Amino acid sequence: MIIATTEEIKGRTIQETLGVVKGEVVQSKNIGRDFMAGMKTLVGGEIAGYTEMLREARQIATKRMVEEAENLGADAIVGVRYGSSAVMQGAAEIIVYGTAVKLKK
């Protein structure tokens, strides 16, 4: 599956637009990460546990989007965008969406 943030794939022609596809996940922090994050805010710097949590959430959301596109028979997803928001204290939502397309052979 080709995934692109652009509206077209260089060197390829879009044959058919299949529709919008998305993937989303709500990921929560665990107590250990919360405690360590609280300690880190005292001294500053990157909170690696949260960075890893968000990386994992993006991977899950992307996998779900790709599965939805595959079910439509897509060869690629164009115009891909990611978004995130805090759903509640200690939990973040990651969403990824794009347009599933069929490419000319």
The largest beta-sheet arranges its strands as 1-3-4-2
Low-confidence stretches: none
Structural category: alpha+beta
Helix and strand pattern: EEHHEE
Quickly give the CATH architecture.
2-Layer Sandwich
Number of beta-strand segments? 4
Helix content: 25-40%
* Beta-strand content: 35-45%
Q: What's the shape?
A: elongated
- The CATH topology label is Translation Initiation Factor IF3
How many domains make up the coordinates? Answer: 1
What does this structure look like?
The protein is 35% helix and 41% strand. The protein is α+β, with helices and mostly antiparallel strands. It starts with a strand and ends with a strand. The model has no long low-confidence stretch (mean pLDDT 86).
Keywords, please?
single chain; 105 residues; alpha+beta; Translation Initiation Factor IF3; 2 helices; 4 strands; elongated
Summarize the structure.
35% of the residues lie in helices and 41% in strands. It is of the alpha+beta class and 105 residues long. The protein has a single domain (2-103), classed as Hypothetical protein apc22750. Chain B (Translation Initiation Factor IF3, 2-Layer Sandwich), CATH 3.30.110.70.
Write the layout of secondary structure elements.
Blueprint: E1 2-3, E2 14-28, H1 31-43, H2 48-71, E3 76-88, E4 91-103
Parallel strand pairs: 1-3
Antiparallel strand pairs: 2-4, 3-4
